[in-house]
């Protein structure tokens, strides 16, 4: 069983202990569900009453009043709790198996830095480079001349194709494919001829890519995922796309070729972007937004085609009234028809 002294956890989160510091913590849980030996947190005052009844052995909080339990006092309890939670995760690097499994296939020309871990049935190709403390879990495929930085964690069934480059502290979740061919074909009469995809994918530091995401290599040059980007499951990034620093792409987003995303862009679930457009810094696209043209910086859009979010909301509100408006239109059309018939009869009577 993994356990940490409370003072170790306080050092990790930069907090101050109020109460006993030598308590052993063996797990994490919410304030209502926590049991003895676990640590919990209090970030919302509406849960403050649970301080008196929680069975947790310690609490992370931004206050020290009202708790019979030892407190790790920090300014941001939720963030501190997330850091502590990672220590107890089965996927935390400290808990993963070390060394190179005997069933792994590693090319003689591959260069492995210190403390690299390679799991069962992994493949590492010719001239590949793995940085210090990087971990490949079972069934990972790293093809020729791939470069992977330090402290990376790559989950089972990930494929990184030839010549692609991955920075430091990158996490790739199961089934992700980095460097698949871009979707490019040229018509030759009725035949679709494949366009060679000879570029690469470059992923910078502190990026996380979700399960079954696909990032296509560039036709030429590079598909670039910049520092700090977080990509959810089932996301498709096409050839020659650039994703700016600290951007977030939620599940089932699709970005077409050669589109550029600025810094801190947010694409909500199932948003779809056409190719060769630019999304400005701090822009946000709502869920299922269909983006057909470039978006300026600091703009929120939604709907299909995507419009400024306030305008889109008004349109959606009016759409809800369409059945009633249609009934009213038919009623008015009937009245106009009756008036026209009456006018015609009056005109005929006058002529007689």
Notes on the protein architecture:
- A hairpin with a 2-residue loop joins strand 21 (about 185-190) and strand 22.
- The N and C termini lie far apart (about 105 Å).
- It contains four helices and 39 strands.
- An eleven-stranded mixed beta sheet has the order 10-13-16-19-24-27-30-33-36-38-39, covered by helices on one side. It has a ten-stranded parallel beta sheet with strand order 8-11-14-17-20-25-28-31-34-37, with no helix packed on it.
- The longest helix has 30 residues, at about 320-350.
- With about 350 residues, it is of the alpha/beta class.
- It has three domains: about 5-90, MurE/MurF, N-terminal domain (Udp-n-acetylmuramoylalanyl-d-glutamate--2,6- Diaminopimelate Ligase, Chain: A, domain 1); about 95-310, Hexapeptide repeat proteins (UDP N-Acetylglucosamine Acyltransferase, domain 1), CATH 2.160.10; about 320-350.
- The protein is about 15% helix and about 30% strand.
Chain-wise SSE layout:
Blueprint: E1 4-5, H1 6-13, E2 16-18, E3 24-25, E4 27-28, E5 38-42, E6 58-61, E7 71-73, H2 77-87, E8 105-106, E9 111-112, E10 117-118, E11 123-124, E12 129-130, E13 135-136, E14 141-142, E15 147-148, E16 153-154, E17 159-160, E18 165-166, E19 171-172, E20 177-180, E21 185-188, E22 191-194, E23 200-203, E24 208-209, E25 214-216, E26 222-225, E27 230-231, E28 236-237, E29 242-243, E30 248-249, E31 254-255, E32 260-261, E33 266-267, E34 272-273, E35 278-279, E36 284-285, E37 290-291, E38 300-302, E39 307-308, H3 309-319, H4 322-351
Parallel strand pairs: 4-5, 5-6, 6-7, 8-11, 9-12, 10-13, 11-14, 12-15, 13-16, 14-17, 15-18, 16-19, 17-20, 18-23, 19-24, 20-25, 23-26, 24-27, 25-28, 26-29, 27-30, 28-31, 29-32, 30-33, 31-34, 32-35, 33-36, 34-37, 36-38
Antiparallel strand pairs: 1-3, 2-7, 21-22, 38-39
